[in-house]
Amino acid sequence: MNMNSLRKIGAALAAAVTFSVVAGAGAAQTPLGVWLTPPDRKGQVAHVETERCGDAYCGSIVRAFDSDGEPVMTPNVGKRVFWDLTKIEGNTYGGMAWVPAHDRTYNAKMTVKGDELTVKGCVLMICQSQVWKRVQ
């Protein structure tokens, strides 16, 4: 083999490795796991566990903590906060969400980027969003 052939093989291998790493990273971008919400108006945070529910994703509050990080029991622990999330495109999912602070249901979108989940809820043209952090 001449040097030109070796360079071409090396370049092809590098491209294949790069593609498989990038493709693997994209495939791992699902909302599955446990997510930490930002503090609510009382300073409480929650862990929301996302799991498969049939062909979609859903999530429930599994734990809540006060502003000092101490576990608290609230009526919302165990309640489902989103459901029917299906992939829209890339790492973005759409479905429905219930917001305990408002006791209302909204159209929701979630976008996964590494260990962050951007959660966006909208009613008509008014939207609000939060960034949740992956706990596990």
TrEMBL record:
Stretches assigned to the DUF2147 domain: 33-134
Family matches, as Pfam families: DUF2147
Keywords, ordered alphabetically: Signal
Signal sequence region: 1-23
PANTHER family to which the protein is assigned, alphabetical: BLL6627 PROTEIN, BLR1215 PROTEIN
Stated name of the protein: Uncharacterized conserved protein, DUF2147 family
Organism this protein belongs to: Salinihabitans flavidus
High-level lineage: Bacteria, Pseudomonadati, Pseudomonadota, Alphaproteobacteria, Rhodobacterales
